[in-house]
Amino acid sequence: MKKVMSIGLIVMVLLFLAACKGDPTVPTIPTDTGNPTDPTDEYWDQNGNGIPDWQEEEITLTYATWQYTQPDMVTIDLLMIEAFAEKYPNINVEMKVVAEWYDWDTAFLGLLEANDLPDVFLIQRLGSFLPFNMLADISEMYENDPSTQHIFESVSGLGTYGGKRFAVPTFIYPTAWFVNLDLLDKASINKPGYDWTYAQMESIARSTTNLTSHEFGLSGCNFYSRVYPKVLKMQEDLVTGRTWYAFGYDGERFNFDDPVMQTGANKYSESIQQGYCKPGFSPEELEEWYADPTFVPTYGGKVAIWPEATWSAKDYFDSFTFNWDVYPGPGGVTGGNTDIGGVSSLSQHKQAAYQLLKWMSFGEDGLLKRFEIYADVGQELFQQGNNFPYPIIDYGIDGQGVNKVWEAIPYGGVAPGFVSPEFVEGLRNGAFWANKEVIGWDAVDSATGPYFVEIMNGTNTYAALKDMIQAAANAALNEAQQAMKDMIGF
């Protein structure tokens, strides 16, 4: 459920905070006409006057996100573009209402036909926009931006196609691991460290499972086929393992024929058959065990450990009646996904649009402003839409020994694990579900899904199906990528 704050409430909060800081009218936002790609170079300053070209004329840009669907909404995006315009006074940014996420692609076709694309926007699927030439090639800007060298390897390849960059990841939305500390206490298990291993997680899951009281150690078993293979691959070969995404994808192919995929699938079957992982609950089970067919065992305190996307769980945190914390993925690899954004091919001010995209995503100044707003206004803003966004980048430690961006993240008030150093490391090594970015990912998931159902149900084994899974994945990926080549010519 999306939470929307009224304009009046946000304005009152920000005015109050501004007054506390000594400004009786508006929040203090520094104006900066300097070059965000410090130092200024020829690419950004073609006339050599020391001022980036995109800061030399009055510009109006438009920005669109599926989290902004009504003109009277006040979201983090609106506050961020206002801050951008304050920082760069020559640029006016207007929020554009487009559609909800499920109508996004259709709405953009209409905007394209009307020659009215926003300058900067989020992208549902790269493959949906590429055939219509909606996206500018931002490769040169990205390559001439020194900040991009700090982007995590786990996401740096996302947003490219055919050797060109058409999008950038905006934020990571992690699949966090929620741990019911009360069930651990009940089983006389100490709270694990945030650097927990897979073996520790499995041991806890086994020890907290009580089939008599219908308490389960683990729910969310597809971890074994999606994320766990990268854990194993990094243990086997750290360099190669770091290049993997979720589902055994290495940037070119899905490695279902790699032995680590079979190990993960075998654990998938074992965890279900031995009862310490419950993949799902039927209405009949919920009625019989908990006297309520709508009961949610994870939120209701009947599951010790479960991985779940933060945007999925966030509306229920206040209803948790047990002590809990959040962990990175066991073994130091966390799953999740990213949003991606791009610049319109029709934009008349592409360099300025790129800088707006950067401000709204991985730019250091933008990130610091975002987390300042979150900290000032409170949870209401960062629990809107896809909440708990994490940077895709690490600018490192400054001269005072402070990692300004990562230490500014205010989510620790919800659960301390959200800001643990190990949580950051789990994202740096993340195994992300890249179906928004990789042409053919969804097709591979659909083609291989029935085989994994057989494995989960115990009617077949990975060893018996491995070759068929790999063949199906290869065919689906090749077909989707060839279809894209046929449509756009490369």
From TrEMBL:
Signal sequence interval, chain numbering: 1-21
This protein's record includes keyword Transport: no
Membrane-spanning parts: none
Protein keywords: Signal
Keyword Membrane among UniProt keywords: no
Top-level taxon of the source organism: Bacteria
SUPFAM superfamilies: Periplasmic binding protein-like II (SSF53850)
InterPro entries documented for this protein: Bact_solute-bd_prot1
Stored PANTHER family: ARABINOSE-BINDING PROTEIN-RELATED, DIACETYLCHITOBIOSE BINDING PROTEIN DASA
Protein name as catalogued: Extracellular solute-binding protein
Organism: Peloplasma aerotolerans
